[in-house]
Amino acid sequence: MLSIYGKNLRPQNEINNIISATTEYEEKTLKKWQKISTANAEYIYIIISGDVEFRRTSDDLCMFTLQGQCIFGLSSIFHNTSHIYGVVRANTVVRAIKRDAFSRLMTEKNLWPDLTIVLSWYICLMSKRDDLLVARSAYSVVREFLMEINELTIQQHRDINVYDYIQEYTNLARSTIIKILSDLKKGHYIVVEKGRLINMTSLPEKY
Known about the structure:
The protein has helices at 2-9, 12-20, 99-108, 112-133, 138-156, 162-169, 174-186, and strands at residues 27-30, 35-36, 43-56, 62-67, 70-72, 84-98, 190-193, 196-200.
């Protein structure tokens, strides 16, 4: 879902331009499970490499996961917000830059147009998430995640527990997820062994 959608839409050239402009700033390596917080809105975080999942502060729901380069905390340039925090899932290299210094750098390097494109990418991610999850049936949500899990398994050889993955990104009850997956298994649409998606055929549009 969002992992693949975000990767396909990623404005890599613009991200590269911004990262190249920040090479003078110190890098720090964060270990797995360390957090990147925007509670202190003074900093913008340039993520050079790694794997970070972004969670909602209010309930720790995972909103989306990004691998590789990205920029976190951009909303704090203009607003003091702390609705989302990052959780490192693999060693991640980060540059922390004070927001005033970051704004000056964008002006000096004429990078505001690039930053605008990056911001629009994030807006697209959040809009896509709403489109897939808001006011949709439980089956529609599970179906979308099954298709993403299948692609991640094939393309990235990810080892994903289907039940945990869907519950981590949604507010669906685990019993609901189990019931839908059980029905799909009975209909021979999916094969799940020890929580892993082994095989999937074309899923029905409606439950």
